[in-house]
Amino acid sequence: MSTGAHLRRLPAYVVITKTRTRNANELELCIGGHKRWVICKDRAMRTWAELETAAPEITALGRDLLERFQFVLVGTLTKDGSPRVNPCEAYVIDGHLLLNMMPRSLKALDLLRDPRIYVHTPVISKDATEGEFKLAGRAPVLEDDGLRGKLDDLFWQMMPVAACAGLSLL
Fold first, then answer.
1. Half-sphere exposure of 158 toward its Cβ, with a 13 Å CA cutoff?
2. How far apart are alpha carbons 76 and 45 in whole angstroms?
3. Is residue 1 part of a domain?
4. H-helix or E-strand containing 112?
5. Which range marks the domain in which residue 119 is found?
6. 3 state SS of 16
7. Deepest in the core among 62, 118, 152, 166, taking most CB within 10 A?
8. In a domain, 169, yes or no
9. Do 50 and 39 meet the contact criterion of CB atoms below 8 Å apart?
10. Left (φ > 0), alpha (ψ -120 to 50) or beta: where does 104 sit?
């Protein structure tokens, strides 16, 4: 497969930032409808690895859901400020939560304009017994060539061979 294929997708990574909480130094994490307050030590968390250190029990479930579904629902803001919700591939690679999307998709254009994002794992039942994981943050374009290459490799590993038959990559 051509390594130029990643040019057709716009990988982003999620920077986990503080959200509205009781205290400006806390990050709000929600899981299964229950809130838990985690101290962020006066700074925004930048990586999934930092979040795992701060809240290992919550992120263990979050990672399990991410790996099980391999996609999340992302909330972005349109040009006029209206909310937009779309599915998006999501993976944790080298301690970073990475999102994979088409470069000219509406969600990618939203994030290029305003990187604020809300990430939510799918809920497949009314009572959400499987749990849910949500977080808010920023999703700037992924500039790290090493991470971008690993995301590209993972994408092609997971692509069903039958889906690739007849594809012509430029």
1. 14
2. 20
3. no
4. helix 106-113
5. 7-164
6. strand
7. 62
8. no
9. no
10. alpha
DSSP string, 114-155: --EEEEE----STT-TT--EEEEEE--B---HHHHHHHHHHH
* Residue among 37, 144, 102, 126 at smallest CA distance from 87: 102
Asked whether the CA dihedral 163, 103, 101, 110 is positive or negative, the reply is: negative
CA distance 98 to 79: 24
- How many angstroms separate the CA atoms of 127 and 142, rounded? 35
2, part of any domain: no
Sign of CA dihedral 145, 150, 156, 160: negative
pLDDT in tens, 54-111: 888 888 888 999 999 989 999 999 999 999 999 999 999 999 999 988 888 999 999 9
- Which alpha helices (DSSP H) does 46-105 contain, by range? 48-54, 56-69
Two tokens at 73? 């629902």
**Domain CATH code at residue 58:** 2.30.110.10
The pair of structure tokens assigned to 59 is 């992120």
The total of structural domains in the chain comes to: 1
Residue with tokens 């294929």: 5
What is this structure's pTM? 0.71
